[in-house]
Each structure stands twice: as C-alpha cells, then as structure tokens.
Design brief:
The structure is a homodimer. Chain A is about 30% helix and about 25% strand. By secondary structure, the first copy, chain A, is an alpha/beta fold. Chain A folds into three domains: about 280 residues, Ribonuclease Z/Hydroxyacylglutathione hydrolase-like (Metallo-beta-lactamase, Chain A, 4-Layer Sandwich); about 160 residues, Metallo-hydrolase/oxidoreductase (Rossmann fold, 3-Layer(aba) Sandwich); about 100 residues, Ubiquitin-like (UB roll) (Roll), CATH 3.10.20. In chain A, the strands form five sheets. In chain A, strands 7-6-5-3-2-1-20-21 form an eight-stranded mixed β-sheet. Chain A has a six-stranded mixed β-sheet with strand order 8-9-10-11-12-19, with helices on one face. Chain A has a six-stranded parallel β-sheet with strand order 15-14-16-13-17-18, with helices on both faces.
C-alpha cells in the first residue's frame, strides 16, 4: 500500500467475520506492529486441511517495517499461526511469561526456538517499536496472564483489548486492572479495538469462582474416580480442580499430551500450585482406591484422538472408566463439535459413569472467558473512544457490539465494522475506511503452507463423495489399434467385486468411444479423453446416480 | 430366529442408541407387525452417503409373516425408509390421512404408488393383523395426525407411544386423547414402548400456542418483508404464521419444494386453513409493498441448497432479502447443524435484515414436539406398564427415561434398555432379553442400497484427506524392459504444476523399484506394486506429511 505520511493505519489480517486466526496490525509511516497470530480449525468442507492461518502477503511485502509481534495471550486462536509466521518474518515476539511458555512449546515442536527472539513483558512494561510505543493493562480471561495493549502513536492512543471479561473474584489473583483502564480512558483513546465474542449475550459473565463451588460439591458427592475434562490452558480452572481434590483427599493424574505439557509450564512458571506428591502417573491410577483419584484429561471438544474420547471407547492404555465413576465436562462444546461431544457422553453412560454435562449455566461447571454485553459496555465506558472497531467475531457479533457502543454514546458513524484486509486510516484525528490490502485464508496441510487451493480441494470433494475410476488403454503409435485394455480400477466408487457388469460396460463404452473417434480420424488425446469421460460418466450416473472422478489414461506405444 | 410358541417378541430394527431411522416390530408366533420405517441423515464421516435406513434382513427372511407396516406419523425419521422397505417387502401400510399424504409424496418420487396398498386409519380404527389386533390413540406432536398404538395380543397389550408431548392448548385441535390413554392403562399394559428424545430435560414441554403469541408480536413490529423458516411438516406452526399474517394484512408466498408440496397436502386434506387469494407466487413478492408480504421458506437447518441458504447468499431467483426485512428462524438447529445455521444468520445480518434466532426458550419462536420429563412421567403414569422399553433416543436418553420410570414405580428390573436387534421375549407374562436378530445401518448412495460398505468408505476417506496418485508404467512381456512411463497423474494431492520436482522423484523411485526387482528376478505384479507403493509413499510422507492413495498400474505388452 502507498505510504501515507502522518497517517495511522489499523487493519485486521484475521479475526473479523470469523471466530479464529486473530491477527491485527497498526502502522504509522514506516513502523508496523502486529498483534497476535492465530490459527483456526477448518470446518468439514476443507477436506484434509489441518489448520487455517492468516494470509500475511502485506507483511511480507513490508518486511523491513515490521517491528514486532505482540501477543495478548496464549490461546490457539492467538498463537497458532506463529510458527508459520516466523518462517517468513523473523521478528521479535513480545508476550507475558505464561504466554511465552505456551509459544515456546510450539516453537520447540517446529524447531524454531533457537532462532527466535522472545521478549518477556508484563503489564508494567513499556516498549518502543519505532514511532509506536506500547504499554499494557491486565485483563481477566480463561487463561492466565492476559494483556490489553495501548499503542501510543503521534496521532493518538489506540487500545486493543485482547480477550477479556470483568471477573471481580477471579482465581489465582488474575484481576482486570480497572484502575489503569480508567486512567487510559481519562488520557484519551483515539480508537478502541475490542473483542466481540459474546456481544449477543445479555448480562455480565459469571465469575470463574462459581465453577469452583460447583466442582467442590460434585467432588463431595462422588464415590469412584473423578474425571474432569477441560482446556489445559484454563489453568485457573485446573487450580480449582486441584483445590477440590485436596479437600476430598484425592491425588491427581494428567492424561493427554497438551494437559501434561501445559500444566508443566504453568507449574514451572508459577501459575499453578500443586502440593508435592499430589501428582501421580497414569500407570498408578488403577492401583489406588477409586475414591482417592482425580483424572484431569484433554478432549472436552470431542476430539477423536484425545484422552476423553479414548477413555469413552475403552481404548486408553492405563486407565478405564468403571461404573460408579464420575465424569465432569468442564467446558462448553464449540459450535460444530456438539455431535462428537454427545457421542462421547453417550459412550460414558454406557460404561456406567455418572456424567455431568450440558451448558455451563445448567451444570455450573463452565463459565465463559469472554465478556457478555455488560462487560463489553463497561470496557467501552472506561475507554470512551472516539473511534470504535469491534473485532474478534462473526459479523453478527460485530454488529451487536456496534449497537452496544452506540448505547453508551459512541456515534454510529464512528464505528467501523471491517473485513479482513480493510484498512482504517486516521489522519488529523479523522478516520476513514477506503483502502484494502491482501487478506484471506492460508491453508496448512501437512508440511504444505498455502499450496492447497481451490482445485485440489474441489478434487478432494469429488473423490470423497463418489470416489474414482481409472481407465487405462494402450494404443499403437502407427495404426492406432488398441493393444491392451481398456482396464478399469475403481476406488471409493462401488465395491468392484459386485460390479462386474457395470465395469464391463465401462470397458465396452471406452472401446467404442476410441474406435468411433478413430473412424472419424480424430487424433487428439484430449478429445479422446473427454469423449470417454462423457460417455462413461453419463452411463455411470444413469446406473448409480453417482459421479465418480473418471481418469482415462491413454498410453501410446 | 427360532419360532417360539405362545411367545410375544418385541424388537427394534432402528431408533435405539441413535436419533433417527425408527423401526420397531412385534411378533406373535407367525405374525409380525412393523411400526415405522425411518431414515437417518449421515454424519460427515460417512462420505457420499445420502441416507441411512434400517437393516431389514430379519423381515426379509420372514417375509411371509409380515402382516403390515403401521406408521405413527409423517416425520422423516419415521417414514424416510419406506420406499426402500417396499422394494423388498410389499406389505400394506396403515397410517392416518395426513401421514398417508406425506408417504404418497415419497412414493410418487420413487414411482411406487401404484403397487402399494395404503390403508387410511384414524384413532378410532381397529385392525386385525393375524393374531395381533391394533387400536390407536391420538397424541400431540410437531406434525398433525399422530397416533399411539395399542397391540392386543394373546399374551397381553403392548403400547407404542409414537412421538408425543402433552399439549393442552394445541393448534388446530390436535389434542392428546388423555381419557383414552387412561382407559388403556386401566385395562392393563403388559409392556410400554415410549419415546425418549427429551428425557434429559426437566419440566413440561411448553405449548405450541406460545409460539403463536410471539409470532404475532414480531409481525406487529416488523416493517419490511417477513421471512419465516420452519419445518414444512410443522403444519400447526404454519397455521400460526397464517394467523399472524391475516392480522397484519400480509399475503403469503411459499419458497422451497418441500414447503410447497407439504403445504399443498395439508390444505387438500384439511389440516391447514389458508383463506382464498392469500397465497401468492414467489414471482409476485417483489411487486408488493414489503410490509404486505410473508415468505414461508425451507432451510431452517442450514441445508445449503434450501431456500433460506440461497436467500442469505443472494442467490434466490425471484426474491431478495433487503435491509429492514425480518427473518424469523422458527426451529432449533438439530445437533450437527449449528455451524451451517450460524453461517446463514451471519449472511442475513450482512444483508441488513433483522434476524430473530437462538434457542426457542429465548426467542419464543420454537417449542419442542417431544415431551420433557414431566410429559414422559405422565405417559408412564397413565399406562402403568408391567414392562417398560424406552425407545427413540441415544443411550443416555434411554437411561434417563428408565430413571423416570423408576421414579413413578416401574421396577428397575422390568425396564429393558435394548440395542437395535435385541429381542425382548414375553411368555406367560415373564419377559427376558436373550436373543438377537440382525440389525444395523444400511447405506443409501444414489441408487445403491447397501452396496457401499467399509472398504469403499475407507477409500473415500483416504481420497478426501490427501487425494491420490496414479503411476502408470508399461513393461515388455519378453525382456521386461520399461517401454513407457512411469507417468504420474495426481488429483487432490498437490497442485501438480508446482510439484515438478516431487513428481520427478516419484518417477525415479518407481523406475528404481522396478529395475531393482527385475535384477532380483521378482516377477509377481503384486510384489512390484507393493514395493512401488511403499517406496513412493514413504518419500511423499517425508516431503509433505501427506498420505495420498497410491495406485501403481503396470501394463504388460
């Protein structure tokens, strides 16, 4: 994009009109600061895709201007894209102690730690990034050590909230710094970027503390083993499980790689307190009195390979669920995961477990980490921004957030609902949204980043629905006689052993197409292949109502 | 199964441990009566499958004993399998007038109407089916003309509830016949089969009537066009939309094939009352004052090809959603559909519509047709069965339903939680569950019924994730020299144009595998193919972390 003097630009590369892959940036002349670099899980239509990350073409084209990646907190939708980002842009990463711990786990996996500059910050830090300075404030969320950011620019102050709710009685002293937020508001906020996840939900988010009370109650009643499945990164909830286990004299085992890794980081860095000797190995579980064990496990979203799913189908090596055991699902299913989660619940019931499941408001075992409407209004009120850019959410959430801003006095025309790639330029305190930079989804598939596009996905879709049929025929170079074949090989289309007649007719139609064309003296391979495809495809559709991918292969000898 | 004299057998061929494809049967000696024949929609793991229907092997093997298919009501999970059932077993179908209307739509589509004997019954009918007699009672549900069934057998009376709730103020006079149910209970019920869909939900289902009140309120407020999306078969809800439209002086257009078909059946057969001249064509919508039109449309479950989805993406031929229009989603998303539904809602917001969405209890625009716990307890209390078989639901629902039965006095040991295929035998009033008959999922894919099995699905899965690679090589018969190739064709794996080096190496490895084997004088095609697969597969996984299906084709000339 054209360099604009004395202009402050704000844009999203991911996170608006979607839930996931958050990435925002602000630019003042030659300095760009990037906020977060998240991943997003593909829906079932993106066959074979492992992860979606933001398209960072613009940042690559302006490599020399990118001063830093500042990370607000350690959730996947804020850090999941970092390894891919670093391969293109090796800039320093600023984050809090716990967030850095989670980023380091990721960099270890990708063998990127040695070459990356990681800078630990806290809410009192102030960092200089070219003409942009950043200071911070603490927020409460469902993971420890979250930050909101104030960017001090020559044009004015820009606030990015990160993810937040206002929890006045959080666990582990993870308070929102309301006094500091008030001061930031008093000093003047030119533009506020605030998260919108729960902008559709009225009221104030319940405090995490209530979960602890319900947890303790359930622990008091339970007789057998207790399994608790939750996000490993929800360290404060893990702490409450620890507290309930202490009260009921239970030891704790951890199941699942991410549970073990993240709990280790949390303990090492001082965010989680587990008394010595309380943690046991999964191999010790079955040796103890069932009433003396708590098992913390991954898989609350129904992930088929995670611990809870394997437990529910009796496929976990060391540990089994027995009649009389209690299983607590201390997380709500993310939209799209409901069916997988309910399959697991059903299996657990079949094993005879008492399962505590359902929405958090029913069971009391889960509260959201994202502020509801009253939380969002409190943030807006504290910050009193001139301009407002709702971020982090689907369009309807941004839309509702705009209405909340209006209700506390932000002029409707001063709210910008942007798409990924839209740029809001502010010059002399006047904001307008006219330009766009490249933005979109980059697909990660195995080791490939961005190499799988529409064509490959379209082929996968066709293959997934009706399979395919390869037809090979060998033709002599001179007289163009059929020397061998046609032979057919099908996969995912019909069960070949029961489809003799069908495949014989395919061979006959192929032969006919080839000889007919030869009579007309048509010699182009492409025409020949198209003719075979059409004739065979039509026949197969009539016979089966399926449209397998047909691949005619003509070999000339 | 062995014929048991003086024994009454009850079994499920579909509908327990699942939601969908309901099919139950009772047998007394040489007489079998089948209840319902439903379909079930596949989840995303069943690639390319269109519908799941019950495995009816047992009925086919006992063809001459099957006296009738009795259908409780016209929902897809109770009638969706009928066309496939009829192709194997041409038995008479007994159902109410409205249910028959929906079955006939289906038979028309499959060209089966002429050869099928359809018998209209009502709640006062009594039919003789060999040694089994059937009488009926009316229930309330989310579709008109529902029946519960009493089977009078030499061993005692068996009651099948169908789907029901107790709605004391239903629309269109679709009352539950509580007096008759009480009488049935008084006469003695040996075994009760009762539906379990909402056995997890406490309280009593709200009446359909409340929806009408909320609908009217929303209609009063709306300025532009009003779109209401709901299940077409929920005729009573459609009637309430008609009522609100009359009050606000709006004409009604119908969008979507099933909306048009089912509304026609309902009008013709007297279940829906729309004043003359009130229905307009979709092509007339845009000509009228937006404040004077209601549009009833399909697609409340987010189905991508249905009317609502096409409206939300601006792809409906005659009708568009404009800013200021109101869209009411008068149905809850079925688990698994949440993501598709929320995508549509988001698109509608982007078009500037006011969208009324969310759970029925929040919006008031939807109530369930399935009884909650208090409804289920009322049925159990009225019937006072000796034996209880909870049906129609996942295991956890059946489990909860058993607890409800216990709470009103059914001995725990007298409740049978069965799987599809389990048989409950009752002889001299003593019930036991020891035998099993074949049962399971039969997949419908295009015109194929049951021909797609595990192998085809496993291939589709591999193809869907990483695509495939065909490698063709031609070898001379005599000296086994490579005459042509190897040539590679990939689909859904990598974008071939950018993968020259990768595919070159595949060719080299293939050549090497072939020549190495020839040196060792290995001549079996299978060994050769396996060696190529292994060598190429390993290389590709190292390079890409993908596992495409590899199909080596060796042609011998």
């Amino acid at each position: 994009m054209k360099l604009l003097n004395n202009t402050l630009s704000i844009f999203a590369l991911g996170g608006v009109n979607e839930v996931g892959k958050n990435m925002y940036a602000i630019q003042y002349e030659d300095d760009i600061v990037v906020i977060d670099c998240g991943g997003k899980f593909p829906d079932e239509s993106l066959l074979g895709i492992d992860l979606i990350i933001p398209d960072i073409t613009y940042l690559e084209e302006n490599k020399e201007k990118v001063r830093a990646l500042v990370v607000t907190h350690g959730h996947e939708d804020h850090i999941g894209g970092i390894p891919y980002f670093l391969r293109k842009l090796n800039v320093p990463i600023y984050a809090t102690r716990f967030t850095l711990g989670l980023i380091e786990l990721k960099l270890d996996e990708h063998r990127l730690k040695r070459d990356t500059k990681l800078v630990e910050i806290n809410s009192e830090s102030r960092i200089e990034l070219g003409k942009i300075e950043a200071s911070f404030f603490r927020t409460s969320h469902s993971i420890p050590d979250c930050l909101g950011i104030v960017f001090h620019t020559p044009e004015g102050n820009i606030v990015h909230t990160g993810d937040f709710k206002f929890d006045l009685t959080p666990e582990n002293n993870q308070h929102s710094d309301i006094h500091k937020m008030a001061e930031i508001g008093t000093n003047g906020v030119l533009a506020l970027l605030s998260e919108s996840t729960n902008a559709e939900r009225s009221g104030l988010t319940p405090t995490e503390h209530t979960v602890g009370e319900h947890m303790e109650e359930a622990f008091m009643k339970a007789k057998g083993k207790i399994f608790v499945s939750t996000f490993a990164s929800n360290v404060n909830r893990v702490q409450q499980v620890v507290a309930a286990s202490i009260k009921t004299n239970r030891k704790i085992a951890l199941l699942g790689r991410s549970m073990i890794n993240i709990v280790s980081v949390a303990i090492e860095r001082g965010y989680l307190n587990i008394p010595d000797g309380m943690l046991i190995g999964s191999n010790e579980v079955e040796q103890l009195d069932p009433g003396k064990v708590t098992i913390l496990c991954t898989g609350s979203q129904g992930e088929p390979m995670a611990a809870l799913s394997r437990l529910s189908s009796g496929n976990y090596r060391d540990v089994s669920v027995y009649p009389g055991d209690t299983v607590i699902l201390a997380a709500s299913p993310i939209p799209g995961n409901e069916r997988d989660v309910s399959r697991i619940i059903d299996n657990l019931f079949q094993l005879g477990a008492k399962v505590i499941y359902g929405s958090g408001s029913t069971t009391g075992m889960h509260v959201s980490g994202h502020g509801y409407q009253e939380d969002l209004k409190l943030m807006l009120t504290l910050m009193k921004p001139t301009y407002f850019i709702p971020i982090h959410g689907e369009f309807r959430m941004l839309h509702h957030h705009r209405q909340l801003a209006e209700s506390i006095g932000v002029e409707n025309g001063n709210t910008f609902i942007i798409k990924n790639g839209d740029v809001v330029d502010i010059q002399n305190k006047a904001a307008r949204q006219t330009r766009q930079i490249p933005a979109g989804d980059t697909y990660v598939d195995g080791m490939g980043v961005g190499d799988v596009g529409e064509i490959v996905l379209r082929d996968r879709k066709q293959l997934s629905e009706d399979g395919m049929l390869v037809i090979v025929i060998t033709i002599s170079k001179g007289d163009r006689k059929i020397i061998s074949g046609p032979d057919t090989i099908s996969r995912g289309f019909v069960y070949a052993k029961n489809s003799d007649d069908l495949l014989k007719e395919v061979n006959r139609l192929t032969k006919k197409a080839v000889t007919d064309l030869q009579k007309e003296n048509v010699r182009q391979w492409n025409v020949m292949k198209q003719t075979i495809k059409k004739s065979v495809g039509q026949y197969l559709f009539e016979q089966t109502r399926r449209r397998p991918m047909i691949l005619p292969i003509i070999i000339e000898i």
